[in-house]
Amino acid sequence: MCAALTVEAPCKVNIHLRVLGRRSDGYHNLESIFLALSFGDILRFEVFEPHISRPDEIRIQPELPAGDSSIAKAVSLFRSVTGFSGAVKIEAEKRIPLGAGLGGGSSDAAATLMVLNRLSGLFLPERELQRMALQLGSDVPFFLRGGAAYVTGRGEIIEPLDPPEHLWIVLVNPGIFSGTPEAFALMDRNGDTLWTQQLPKEELVRALSGDPASWPYRNDFLALFLSRGTAAVRDGYTRILEELEALGADFAGLSGSGSTCFGVFKDKRVAEKAEKALISRWSFAQMTFPLARTGITVLKC
Ligand code: C5P
Predict the structure, then answer these.
(1) Could you tell me the end-to-end alpha-carbon distance of the chain, in angstroms, rounded to an integer?
(2) Domain match, 177 and 251 both
(3) What is the pLDDT of residues 59-110, one digit of tens each?
(4) Of 89, 140, 178, 204, which is most buried, counting CB atoms within 10 Å of its CB?
(5) Is residue 126's pLDDT more than 70?
(6) Domain identity same for 126 and 219
(7) Per-residue pLDDT at 197
(8) 16 lines ligand 1 (CB under 6 A)
(9) ATP-binding among the record's keywords (predicted)?
């Protein structure tokens, strides 16, 4: 068994995201299609036997604001639920931008639960990890499996889908931090006038294996920001989406509650050219592709 493990915690895009309504617990019911992508944070874990007395070491680069580490929160929850008492050393290279709708913090949290479960030798069943994951955030359960999924509820009802093949995704971030609670609050104040009719689930799922140029997907947050966002937000999203389309994207959208936009390309060379053109203009641009089924990938044992 390994005492150390290096993993890649992937980012995701929501190629479809509808906010169906506010619930009595303050969360919102969603309908979304998640895709895990082959680009993520690199996390190295080491776990020590409980009899070795040493402090935990968690180093995250670039540094996060104090109290903001989803990795530290996941370690602490794992300890309190399982009684696991070994020290941990974790080094994280954060490559996924923050507040970007790409699920970086959630993916890191899921990777932490999964790796601690393995390195501690406890091997809890997946449903227990799922329970812990939901306590850490609505997007965390998805990352335990990754791949592609039709997701409802708060984010915890996950139906795996076959990921689309041979598609290239170019992520583009305008350099705006988009807070999730603030985005949902804006939706509560304005959203009811924006909601449109829902498509049947079967139609949404079927479309995933079809041509992205005719995908029926939409993101309610994008509609919200384009009509009610600040001038800088409206301008940023409009320009990126127009540029992606002009550069040959077959589909373009917004991930999560922002701020990363994405273009979907059938042709790799067109995607490469688009990435190159966009890197020079925006704070972050990255070409990647949907992961086949898995999420968190072991790089080194
Ligand atoms: O679950 P998570 O901690 O990631 O959610 C952050 C915030 O986003 C919540 O406090 C809530 O305001 C909002 N949220 C929501 N409905 C969801 C997911 C998130 O209202 N399904």
Answers:
(1) 9
(2) yes
(3) 999 988 777 799 999 999 999 999 999 999 999 999 999 989 999 999 999 9
(4) 140
(5) yes
(6) no
(7) 67
(8) no
(9) yes
Q: How many domains does the chain have?
A: 2
Q: How far is CA 33 from the centre of its chain?
A: 11
| Residue span of the structural domain in which 186 resides | 168-288
Q: What is d(CA 224, CA 222) in angstroms, rounded to the nearest whole number?
A: 5
Query: Exposed/middle/buried for 95, CB within 10 Å: 0-12, 13-18, 19+?
Result: middle
CA of 182 to the centre of ligand 1 (A): 10
Q: How far is the CA of 180 from the centre of ligand 1 (A)?
A: 7
DSSP category for residue 192: G
Residue among 271, 37, 274 nearest 168 (CA): 271
Does the pLDDT of residue 194 top 70, yes or no?
Answer: no
Looking at residue 8, its pLDDT comes to 97
Active site residues per annotation: 12, 139
Among the listed residues 106, 32, 101, 41, the one whose alpha carbon sits nearest the alpha carbon of residue 260: 101
Q: Is the CB of 133 under 6 A from ligand 1?
A: no
What spacing in Å lies between the alpha carbon of 234 and ligand 1's midpoint? 23
Residues 145 and 44 in one domain: yes
Residues 7 and 137 in one domain: yes
Phi-psi region at 92: left, alpha or beta (left = phi > 0; alpha = psi -120 to 50)? beta
Residue nearest ligand 1's atom 9 by CA: 181
What interface predicted TM-score (ipTM) does this complex get?
A: 0.98
pTM of the model as a whole: 0.95
Residue 198 pLDDT class (50, 70, 90 cuts): confident
For residues 114 and 221, state if they share a domain.
Answer: no
Which ligand 1 atom sits closest to the C-alpha of 180? 8
Q: Which of 31, 180, 219 to mutate to test the pocket of ligand 1 (most atoms within 8 A of CB)?
A: 180
Give the CATH number for residue 105: 3.30.230.10
Residue range 277-295, pLDDT digits in tens: 999 999 899 999 999 877 8
My answer on whether 71 and 187 are in the same domain is no
**pLDDT tens, residue by residue, 161-190:** 999 989 999 999 999 888 999 999 999 998
